[in-house]
Amino acid sequence: MFVKQIGIDLGTVNVLVFVRGKGIVLREPSVVAVSVNTNRIVAVGEEARQMLGRTPETIEVIRPMRGGVIADYLVTENMLRYFISKVVGRIRLVRPDVMISAPVGVTSVESRAVREAAVQAGARSAYLIPEPLAAALGAGLPIHTPTGNMIVNIGGGATEAAVIAVNGIVVASSVRVGGSKIDESIATYIRRKYNLLIGDQTSEEIKIQIGSALPLDPELQMDVRGRDQVTGLPKTISITSGEVTEAIVEPLAAISATVRSVLEKTPPELASDIIDRGMVMAGGGALLRNVDRFLTEETGVPCHVAEDPLACTAIGAGKALEQYSILRYSLPAA
To answer: Is cis: bond before 218, omega within 30 of 0?
Structure first.
């Protein structure tokens, strides 16, 4: 009765925490700043993100998650401890139950690492839920019915597409291409075309301000500041949304191929449901302009963006804890 139930979307770019009865209580970047000399954590979350590309040699800013899985166990554990303490409070009489989203096809070693990190960080019990299942639950899809539901979750480090029916994943496919790869493609394009070096935060800003999966009419424009590769001096250029669309062709093609591979493997009965109902998009990548129209054109299947695509996975993880007795057969073994 007094145990807090927490759903965590432990993403490559952001961590979102959902608390039963309160909703989303925390959205912070999954970034940690570590002192090189003492190996101690200097800052976590938003405070650490603001240090990206701006720190002296004595401080290293790292993302402990890559492609949705733990790349640095100790830093992830400390980051989880920080976020759990922030939500539950440092003095806790009862430790919380935690449900964490994990990518489809995560190995038993990787899933054990996530679970152990959560328990070490202060959870009473920790469970894992596949990200597409959590995203579908959070988007409000009727996953308990025998009808086919398709979800496309475009996260920071990976994109996952899955067909879900009767509380389980029937077909799924994932590719380690997401928001971060789109940012990289923008930075590479600007470096090649304008000889201008820009940071990760600048390329993310370009994507948010003027990025689009399809050409816009009228085009949007933005001034971009960076360092000239030839002279080494600061320089400002102006780029258009059309150039950004051109820059992100490759990552979008990889996302489209993943969605198509799932549709090709879907049983005929479920495929007919998906044509009727369409597919739902979740994750931060779903906020890119016209990405739903792009996928509809590529696959011929109607595509809709969930109500709060960024929060879907965390909300779904929280809901899964409430429905654990029903869902436990669909979740990875403890």
So the answer is: yes
